[in-house]
Amino acid sequence: MKLIWLFQNADDVMSNKTAFVTPNRTYTYGDICKAVAHTIHNLRHLGVRRGQQVVLIPEHDESAVVFMAAASAIGIQIVMPYNLQNAAILEWANIIQAVNPDHVVYLRRDKAVEELQQVVVEGTHIIELSAFVGHGGENDEDIIDIVVESPDPVENFLVLFTSGTTGKAKAVSISESLVCKRVASVSRQLKFSADARIFMSGLMNNTTGVIFSFGALLHDATLVFPHGRVMEQWPQQVEHHQITHMMLRPVALRRFVEGARECGADLSSLRVMAYGAAALPKKLLEEARVLIPCEWAQGYGLSETFGPFCWLTEDDHQRKLYEQYIYCVGRPDDSLDVSLHFSDAAQNSVGEVVLRGTGLMAGYFDIASDQVQPVGEYFHTGDYGHFSNNGELILKGRISNTILSKNGHRIYPEEVESVVAEIVGVKEVLLLSIPTANNLGNTPVVCIYGPLTQESDEVIGRAVSTQLAIQLSEEKWPDYVFPSRFPFPKSSNDKIIKGEVLKGIDTTALIPVSVMEDTA
Questions:
Q1: pTM: predicted TM-score of the whole model, two decimal places
Q2: What is the Cα Rg of the chain in Å?
Q3: Can you name the CATH fold of 1-154?
Q4: How far apart are CA 181 and CA 155, in angstroms?
Q5: I want to staple 161 with a disulfide (CB 3.0 to 4.6 A). Which of 82, 322, 355, 459 is the partner?
Q6: What is the pLDDT of residues 132-141, one digit of tens each?
Q7: CATH 3.40.630.30 describes domain 403-512
Q8: CATH 3.40.50.980 matches 191-293
């Protein structure tokens, strides 16, 4: 399967149906097909050929969707940086120098391309296509058919540089077949349909953006691009555009709920609300479900799987399965075999989540050798987990983040974060480890931000200790609380940047976490 085939040249009926709604204009399916055909023509005229490699600096708008469809038709490989802020120009230049692509395609509507041209190696071919959608040349009328030069799916179609939450860059190589498979499976799971109006909350350099945009095209739906990235303003846009489907990460969902509560927007048009990427505080989830009474779905996936493969469905939410476990991600779908690898029998049923099947990346792209390192028989996710008696996957936390306490017990950050996030007055929470004196191990510290941090040390310490005692045994507690006076720094994908938070910890401000004595 190819991306370009997820939507066809528009017939007389589909041609006039609205495909994209952007802050600046509305596009019909006929407009999109014409834009793809025109882009193919332009790229070929500029020397782009089948089998070549392109570094893409996209705008998170319709131009990126059109370009990816055109890239599929031509049969080229796309490499996209993780950080697309203007401050990352040197990062882009380093990737361009390391990859040495045939072309660099710049879609952003800004002047940063001039700075990029100054720092890349001389002779780098930079193609600017900043406003080509709907603004073709004098021969537009002659370019009406989409020419698919490469009928076979591109093997290493998409390379995404993702830093995750650790800051360690990974270059994930995804086949075009997997992109299409995940677009189809996720959009089916979320019940996309021809009458759906889908909100483009994701970015085009991550899985959500690609899946939602091409999922909308696959189902002949309408894709609505937000006006800005201020999530507190999105509820009004949902009401205005009568949005039916959207997906939000926990941080974005909190901001969305705060905005909805403030403006009183009518969100009754929503049919499906999806969330994922991290555990969602139970109080926030329940508040959001009252505010947005539609079907809810939580997806669990990785960059390496190009999207979710486990689902907590609306039925699971109605059964309040999320209350039975700290971080339940539901049952695996049929796109992958999911099992556990046990390396330590002493940890009972907890093992590393491992995957097998065709729903996986081609491998990690090694820049130095220009080769893709393939996945073995099993892909080790790096997540600890176990299965419930009913087959639901319960995540414990990242192996790399897991802290070994001074008594030899594993402390799972996601467990602690999920519990502490339930405290009134805590908006953001992150568990980190800091070196102890003389570097003799690490000390677990839970960092929090929110109104609670304005209280005294005694009040903060008691609130955290009391909440931890409800759900976790003492050996799984952090040793200290760090009350941050400022929100945690985040990436453009709304992920907390752990390394930056760690740098900001003031060890003189740490508050001990201790068991509260029973005064009854």
A1: 0.85
A2: 24
A3: Rossmann fold (3.40.50)
A4: 14
A5: 82
A6: 444 444 455 5
A7: no
A8: yes
